[in-house]
Amino acid sequence: MLIRPATPDDIPAITAIYDEAVRTGTASFELEAPSEEEMLRRYRAILDGGYPYITAREAEGGPLLGYAYASAFRPRIAYRFTVENSVYVAPAAHKRGVGRALMDALIIQCEAGGFRQMVAVIGGSDNVGSIALHRACGFYDVGVLKATGFKFGRWLDTVLMQRDLGEGDRTPGGA
Fold first, then answer.
1. Tell me: the pLDDT tens digits for 86-120?
2. Does some domain include residue 128?
3. Domain count of the fold of the chain
4. Torsion angle (degrees, nearest 10) of CA 138, 142, 144, 148
5. Is residue 65 within 8 Å of 47, Cβ to Cβ?
6. The pLDDT value given to residue 174
7. Which of 12, 32, 45, 79 minimizes the number of CB atoms within 10 Å of its CB?
8. pLDDT tens per residue, range 127-155
9. pTM value?
10. Domain for residue 170, yes or no?
11. Could you tell me if 43 and 53 are in contact, meaning their C-beta atoms sit under 8 angstroms apart?
């Protein structure tokens, strides 16, 4: 599998994958999928913030199988060493190891960038695939925020998971 940095040329395929996730799933609490222009704006904001944004393909030039990125967990400066992850896989690529490959690469890139904690904010307690992926990648359960989202006519929990990156909290932070 080819994991590489996302480019603006990937935005149409990224938008399509995210559109499907918004319309049919609870991974995102958005109710309407954003346009390509909005996805490009978000992509640029992530890169401008110094965070990684990556894609997965079977081979160069092949269809986009999924994408992942890290972003600021919270905006206050004391959170600067903590990132939130996002991973989305095309429906046709589910159960093929794409999510795991993206997550592993994202963790490595975040560690190389000096980040110390990664937080997963998972939509829905019944999102067993995402929860299992995160556990397999070393995340542990932090808590559940009950009934914090309302989508598809029902209340949804928010599941919080976390893992250390690199030295985690075992040494002082950098600059």
1. 999 999 999 999 999 999 999 999 999 999 999 99
2. yes
3. 1
4. -90
5. no
6. 63
7. 32
8. 999 999 999 999 999 999 999 999 999 99
9. 0.95
10. no
11. yes
